[in-house]
């Protein structure tokens, strides 16, 4: 008994030394290096490895299969639909965002903070709930459902519903990016233009727009990214019919569910590239605004 | 429903409306059509249900289990991101290392990457045969298609919130206060908890609340990485979706209203936290 426990202690001894040596080495490493390594490791687990995996899975059998996935008719239709949705939702939200930003920064009124929260609402509402709201309004049993059915208009499980869902989830971006820029700018230049006899349009095109252009562009890019990438709200109202009401993110999920994971990853690569382009443009725009600030 | 104003007041009201600048009119028209009427429709539909039936749907065992998966998992991942997000912000503000700009820019990837793509690749990487999942499989830990996988997806989508709210606060903080603390003999731990942490705490909490709010509503990435099994890893948004697929509009609405109310409360909390952070700024 005594003998065996002694020998066990002997076996445990080397690992203890190893741990002590490891701690001694770790102490020599500056804490900055340890913290940096920890942060990078976390980002790698959550971001970098999954992001690299998108490209690996899409290209693991070569470029040929990748390209043949991208010429499937259902894929092409989904891609076209996604572009169309963004092409409608982005201008709508830009007009709204500019008007809201102008209204909020150029007028003093009670409940301003409350108004800003209302603009932010679409960000805090779950996309599924957003889709559900549209079903409650435009669906067969909805408020406007009967009137729409009488006039032969389909909104839910059709293109108009997808447009509404896309516009809903990407609503606040332009307003949020433009409001701080307009606030910093102040309205002295606009007032000067007004005194010199410029009308509202002239003031907007010649004075305001040049000053807010980078913030506006940034808002546009974010709106576009969200519009092209939206999944939850669109999937509730679209009915997800291939070749008809299937946008690119819905195609990704559908292909994955049908065990066509190569097709899913091929489409995912395109959406991932959209994300990369968005981030690069964002970086460029941020640098431009920083230079102009100085 | 008839609302009658005294004549004088009504004409004032009309005059006010016609004098309203057109930017205001567009803003309100868009907000009312796109946002306020849909929210109203949701509440009206929910209130048209008899209360006992509403209560029964909202507190059914499946719904309670779905709230548990949604809120507990979101809270744990939001707190987890609170710690690691603060660490990442700290490293980005204070240290220099190769490719730092690239790392900084990549933090926003979850904002830009469509959630369906995130769900697809996370499910793949963390599956039993995936790059990371295969390391955990021999230990008997399944990640994809379990609650753990839902947590990974939520961690992914809420990662940027803490980093991006803490980073500017750390950037503005003067390094001399810290140096003063060291000179007075404070240990690194004391310096962190008594000097660095108090001013960044409102920002950390705001980031955690934003991440939590986003994770609670998340659908795209979580629906793909989850097996969507009731009582196991079914989240509330997916439960709403399933009820809609079964044409059970009233059940979907009841659970949807619960989720909507919680989003509104969270939005209010975040606004209060941000106001608190600004007060800290001024002092």
From TrEMBL, chain A:
Q: Which domain of life is it from?
A: Bacteria
Which UniProt keywords are given for this protein, alphabetically ordered? Membrane, Sulfate transport, Transmembrane, Transmembrane helix, Transport
**Which residue spans traverse the membrane?**
33-56, 77-103, 115-139, 151-175, 263-281
**Pfam families, per database record:** BPD_transp_1
GO terms of molecular function = ABC-type sulfate transporter activity
Instruction: Give all residue intervals belonging to the ABC transmembrane type-1 domain.
Output: 79-282
The keyword Membrane belongs to this UniProt entry's keyword annotation: yes
Q: PANTHER family annotated for this entry? A: SULFATE TRANSPORT SYSTEM PERMEASE PROTEIN, SULFATE TRANSPORT SYSTEM PERMEASE PROTEIN CYSW
Record-linked NCBIfam families:
3a0106s02, permease_CysW
Protein name per its UniProtKB record: Sulfate ABC transporter permease subunit CysW
GN (gene name)? cysW
TrEMBL record, chain B:
Q: Where can this protein be found?
A: Cell inner membrane
InterPro entries, A to Z:
CysT_permease, MetI-like, MetI-like_sf, Sulph_transpt2
> What's a single GO MF annotation on this record?
ABC-type sulfate transporter activity
Tell me where the transmembrane regions lie: 22-44, 65-91, 111-133, 145-163, 251-273
CDD domains with a match to the protein in the record: TM_PBP2
Chief site of localization: membrane
One CC-aspect GO term = plasma membrane
Keyword NADP assigned: no
What Gene3D superfamilies does its record include?
A: MetI-like (1.10.3720.10)
* Keywords assigned: Cell inner membrane, Cell membrane, Membrane, Sulfate transport, Transmembrane, Transmembrane helix, Transport
For this protein, the record's NCBIfam families field holds: 3a0106s02, permease_CysT
* Annotated family: Belongs to the binding-protein-dependent transport system permease family. CysTW subfamily.
Q: Which protein, by its recorded name, is this?
A: Sulfate transport system permease protein CysT
Q: Which organism is it from?
A: Merismopedia glauca CCAP 1448/3
């Amino acid at each position: 008994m005594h003998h065996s426990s002694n020998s066990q202690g002997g076996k445990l001894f080397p690992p203890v030394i190893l741990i002590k040596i490891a701690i001694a080495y770790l102490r020599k490493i500056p804490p900055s290096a340890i913290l940096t390594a920890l942060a990078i490791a976390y980002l790698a687990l959550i971001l970098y490895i999954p992001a690299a995996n998108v490209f690996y899975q899409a290209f693991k059998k070569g470029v040929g299969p990748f390209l043949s996935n991208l010429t499937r008719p259902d894929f092409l239709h989904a891609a076209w639909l996604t572009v169309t949705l963004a092409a409608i939702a982005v201008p709508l939200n830009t007009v709204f965002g500019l008007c809201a930003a102008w209204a909020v920064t150029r007028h003093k009124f009670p409940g301003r903070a409350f108004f800003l929260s209302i603009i932010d609402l679409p960000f805090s509402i779950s996309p599924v709930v957003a889709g559900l709201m549209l079903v409650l309004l435009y669906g067969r049993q909805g408020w406007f459902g009967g009137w729409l059915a009488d006039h032969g208009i389909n909104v839910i499980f059709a293109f108009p519903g997808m447009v509404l869902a896309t516009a809903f989830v990407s609503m606040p971006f332009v307003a949020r990016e433009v409001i701080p820029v307009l606030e910093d700018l102040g309205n002295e230049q606009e007032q000067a233009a007004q005194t010199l006899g410029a009308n509202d349009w002239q003031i907007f095109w010649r004075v305001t727009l040049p000053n807010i252009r980078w913030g506006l562009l940034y808002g546009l890019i974010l709106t576009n990214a969200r519009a092209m990438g939206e999944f939850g709200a669109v999937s509730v109202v679209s009915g997800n019919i291939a070749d008809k009401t299937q946008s690119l993110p819905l195609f990704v999920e559908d292909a994955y569910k049908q065990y066509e994971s190569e097709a899913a990853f091929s489409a995912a690569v395109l959406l991932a590239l959209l994300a990369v382009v968005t981030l690069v443009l964002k970086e460029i725009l941020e640098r431009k605004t920083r230079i102009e600030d100085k | 429903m008839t609302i009658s104003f005294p004549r004088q007041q009504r004409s004032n009201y009309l005059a006010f409306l016609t004098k309203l600048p057109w930017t205001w009119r567009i803003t309100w028209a868009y907000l009312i059509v796109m946002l306020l009427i849909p929210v109203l429709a949701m509440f009206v539909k929910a209130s048209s249900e008899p209360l006992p039936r509403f209560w029964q749907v909202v507190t059914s065992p499946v719904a309670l289990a779905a709230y548990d998966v949604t809120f507990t998992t979101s809270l744990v991942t939001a707190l987890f991101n609170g710690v690691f997000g603060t660490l990442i912000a700290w490293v980005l503000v204070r240290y220099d290392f190769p490719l730092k700009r690239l790392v900084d820019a990549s933090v926003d990837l979850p904002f830009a990457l469509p959630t369906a793509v995130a769900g697809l690749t996370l499910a793949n990487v963390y599956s039993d045969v995936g790059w990371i999942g295969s390391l955990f499989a021999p230990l008997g830990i399944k990640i994809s298609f379990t609650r753990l996988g839902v947590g990974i997806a939520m961690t992914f989508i809420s990662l940027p919130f803490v980093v991006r709210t803490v980073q500017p606060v750390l950037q503005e903080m003067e390094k001399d206060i810290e140096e003063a603390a060291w000179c007075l003999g404070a240990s690194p731990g004391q310096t962190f908890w008594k000097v660095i942490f108090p001013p960044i705490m409102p920002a950390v909490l705001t980031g955690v609340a934003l991440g939590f709010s986003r994770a609670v509503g998340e659908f795209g990435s979580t629906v793909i990485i989850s097996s969507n099994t009731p009582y196991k890893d079914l989240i509330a948004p997916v439960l709403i979706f399933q009820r809609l697929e079964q044409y059970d509009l009233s059940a979907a609405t009841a659970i949807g209203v619960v989720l909507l109310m919680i989003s509104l409360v969270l939005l209010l909390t975040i606004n209060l936290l941000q106001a608190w952070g600004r007060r800290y700024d001024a002092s």
